[in-house]
Amino acid sequence: MDQPNVLWNPSSGQIAASQMASFLATVNGVRSGLPPLDGYPALYQWSIDHREMFWSLWLRESGLATSGSAEPVELESPPTLGARFFPNLTLNFAQNLLRYRDDRPALVSVSETRDRTTTTYAELYDQVHRLRLTLEGLGVGPGDRVAGVLPNISEAVVAMLAATSLGAVWSSCSPDFGPRGVLERFAQIEPRVLFVTNGYTYGGKTFSCIEKVEEIVRALPDLTRVVMVPYCASIGSELSVKTPCLSWQHALAIDGHVDGGTDIEFAALPFNHPLYILFSSGTTGIPKCIVHGAGGTLLQHSKELMLHSDLRREDNMLFYTTCGWMMWNWMVSSLFVGATLTLFDGSPGHPSAGRLWEVVSEEGVTHFGTSPKYLGTCRGVVSPGSAHDLTCLRVILSTGAPLLSEDFDWVYADVKQDVLLASISGGTDIVSCFMLGNPMLPVIRGEIQAFGLGMDVAAYGDDNQPVVREKGELVCRSFFPSMPVRFWNDEGDVRYEKAYYREGRSTWYHGDYMEITESQGKCGGIEVLGRSDATLNPGGIRIGTAEIYGLVETLPWIEDSLVVGQPWEGDVRVVLFVQLAAGEVLDDERAAELRLAIRSGATPRHVPEKILSAQEIPYTRSGKKVEIAVREIISGSEPRNKEALANPETLDYFRNLDELST
């Protein structure tokens, strides 16, 4: 195997100071009399071989506030697939996120729509207390659904915490969703209270949400109350609907005050009590309603934030996300650590591509999360390291798609040399990660560092056996706390089991293809190669779409690309669509250059038979390329759900292309 291209190595001092190293020392302490584990690969293997001991120990070390017995750790015969862990424990999610009540900033909201706001931990506790009393007065209790169509602002966090403090189940999406997209999600779960905004600003343009909200409210007959956040000062906040509506200010008032001497009466709930309902992207049909439990979510998030991301009380987390993407839920758990959460709402490219780096500098962000798409857009356009003071920045997190090797290079050349670039991968299905960063390991070009502790991940070949250094399907061979508790309205877990399991419930099939290089030893060195349902199969050879993107999107004249398989003459042919940079033309010379780059960097099988120019590439609202919908269109069928797309109008181009008829 070639020597890995190491881009960053933590110093011995950085390793020793990490929370991961501290946890390793704790593990060695409880293993007294046995040879000490000597690094992350050994710690990871211990967490797999002694899974129940690991989760029990992390429950204690994380500081989660729970009541009851921690035994048994895991049930052998659970009533549902996901309700397995710590069945005799109770906790409250909001209580754990509100354990600090001091003057340290908890939330900083930066947006295009209004001036910057700051909320301390004491103020956050007070606001949650006030709103909780209002919701309680409306009859909201354990198991009720409370939903939000909100931007990524402090009010969204307060509303979620107030709802979950009562044991209600929170679900949210962003205000750029159309009414149909919102209703395809919320009509299934029948929320009792809905939080909305009157408008928002994106890319310098202001958008009213009033008509959209009225349509949504009229279609949700079980709503008892709407709470309006007057986010956009230039737009009114009155709704012409029968459902009673409260203003945000009224919802927080509670006769003008909350007694400062009283505490929130947090509902004590089972460890696996429903916390969030998240939704699949919905590009192939009505979105699945995925129910996640409070304890498993918090246990997993605390592990990923504290150990794998080394997040601390003095840190500042900014993850560029919306309330419709699972990274919002992941990011908000930073409050458990007591860190500051910088919430950004608006376009990352307005007024320039460097806007997010400007915020990172101004707010002293230590942990910056974004998408490969944003990093790729910045590459060659901005140089954040020279334009901004990034002294505080310690960790960059990237997820949503595979991160190109060239973007790894750009980060260390133009952003910062001494930074942990953590490409992470998991999903809405688990509201967390299978593989992610690690402060004890080097960063190797183009690779995710390691599997997460307690996650028994492998790549399975066609014979359902583990493979290394070749493509395989991502599986997890043991249960883990952040598995969904269930799907909503899924009697007997029929759809749940069909979604993730084959021939029994012993191995989780996630739906991604990947390759384990073992450059970090048995604990990782991973390349994600794309979704298995979008995999190309020319001549029966499996090709991950990410393998082609990594070769195409580094060419300076390519803005973006999309590759799909088209059924053709009893086989599948590879079709590549490219979005060209301004002023470029896809002629025979450019097409030949593309084919040569793909053939040289991969194999002849990867070379597309057809290369076409597209004006724009379609994406989901969470920033993922829409491969399956395009494949359906060029194969003669219509995608079943376009509301999941951020730019559905782009699909028109792919219909009835003459070039694909021969």
User: What is the total tally of β strands?
Assistant: 33
Mean pLDDT figure: 93
Query: Which outline best applies?
Result: globular
Name the CATH architecture of the domain at 92-252 and 266-302 and 322-332.
Answer: 3-Layer(aba) Sandwich
**Class from helix and strand fractions:** alpha/beta
Per the CATH scheme, the topology name of the domain at 92-252 and 266-302 and 322-332 is Rossmann fold
**Radius of gyration, rounded?**
24 Å
User: CATH superfamily of the domain at 92-252 and 266-302 and 322-332, please?
Assistant: ANL, N-terminal domain
Kindly report the spatial arrangement of strands forming the biggest sheet.
Answer: 5-4-17-16-18-19-20
Approximate strand percentage: 15-25%
Number of helices: 21
Which regions contain 5 or more consecutive residues with pLDDT less than 50?
none
Return the CATH class of the domain at 92-252 and 266-302 and 322-332: Alpha Beta
Task: Give the termini distance in whole angstroms.
Answer: 42 Å
- Roughly how much helix do the residues carry, as a percent range? 25-40%
Largest sheet features: 7 strands, mixed
